[in-house]
Design goal:
With 195 residues, this protein is an alpha+beta fold. The chain has helices spanning 2-7, 9-16, 24-27, 31-61, 69-80, 101-120; strands at 83-87, 127-134, 137-143, 149-156, 161-166, 174-187. The protein has 2 domains: 2-61, no CATH class; 67-187, no CATH class. Helix 5 crosses helix 6. The longest helix has 31 residues, at 31-61.
Length: 195
């Protein structure tokens, strides 16, 4: 219908509107009106084509399998923020050693990868396929849809900070939760054997 408006608005008027009038020739719009309708029809057609192209490019740009896996892993790093939580050893002092921090961090990274795959970058299908810790550096290899590999490197930038201290009357307080300041980086490859 839009094509008929742009191609020949006079014929379209004769076939769809003229029947309403007893004397269609007298009610027919002027040549200027037909030119304006042709220009409007062509303008709307071009706008619809451009809108369709824009929507299609946005749809494909959010699919990590098309080169946006890095963005999905960056989103995981962004969700981690400048600190990440851990669970302290229940028998520890108020400033605990953090023996299970890497395992806690693995759980957090896995959860965020799942969240990003479901909501932020649908179809990313991020999976943690390898992980290891070397001193205060934690390396996670994530695989995206299509088999693309990415390295999420998380460096501890300071000691754990008590976040929740459990205190029972008459008993020495213990730290149950802590926050660890971190810095994250994403690389377009699997994590190397050494950081």
């Amino acid at each position: 219908m839009l094509f008929s408006v742009a191609a020949d608005p006079r014929t379209r008027w004769q076939k769809t509107e003229a029947w309403k009038y007893r004397n269609p020739e007298a009610a027919e719009p002027s040549a200027a009106v037909f030119r304006a309708r042709r220009a409007a029809g062509a303008g709307v057609g071009v706008a619809l084509i451009l809108l369709g192209a824009a929507v299609n490019s946005v749809k494909w740009s959010n699919e990590p399998g098309r080169g946006k896996g890095h963005d999905a892993v960056e989103r995981v790093a962004q969700l981690l923020g400048p600190t990440t939580p851990g669970i302290a050893d229940q028998s520890s002092d108020p400033l605990p050693p953090m023996p299970h921090f890497h395992a806690d961090l693995l759980d957090v990274v896995t959860g965020y990868a799942d969240q990003v795959s479901r909501y932020d970058y649908r179809g990313a299908d991020l999976k943690v396929t390898a992980d290891r810790a070397v001193a205060t550096t934690h390396l996670f290899t994530l695989t995206a849809a299509g088999g693309a590999l990415y390295c999420l490197q998380i460096d501890e930038t300071g000691p754990g900070i008590p976040d929740f201290v459990d205190s029972i009357k008459g008993v020495r307080p213990t730290v149950a939760l802590y926050q660890v300041p971190i810095r994250s980086a994403v690389f377009d490859r699997a994590c190397a054997a050494t950081p």
